[in-house]
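Q: My labmate handed me this sequence with no annotations at all. I'd like to see what the chain might look like in three dimensions before we decide whether it's worth expressing. Could you predict it?
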Amino acid sequence: MKLDKVYRVISAELGELPLKEGGAQFTPSGFKRETQVAEVAENIGFVETPAPAVLALTLQASIGAEEFRHVTDDSLTIYLSGGGQHMMPRAWVTEAVELGTGELKVTYNGAKSEKLA
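A: Here is what I predict for the chain of 117 residues:
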């Protein structure tokens, strides 16, 4: 079995983002389900709330940290090694980006994601 991994991310605002090897984690949008317990087993159920799409990246510092300061409405295309693609429309950077030892850590959130292929 071949496992997919994120190998390329294209930002509509910034172009191709310079990913470090193994530097991406993607969680598609979906739902969180919280179990609601009851005295009788037949009455146990759950409450469902929307969960955002999350893309956590480690980038090479060939792009400046200040480039991410005003990212509030970006469209990201996420390419997987197995050929799959996802889109995060209207994504935003969640916090200030810090420059470390030649790398940047960036986290994007989006209200939803869409599987393209």
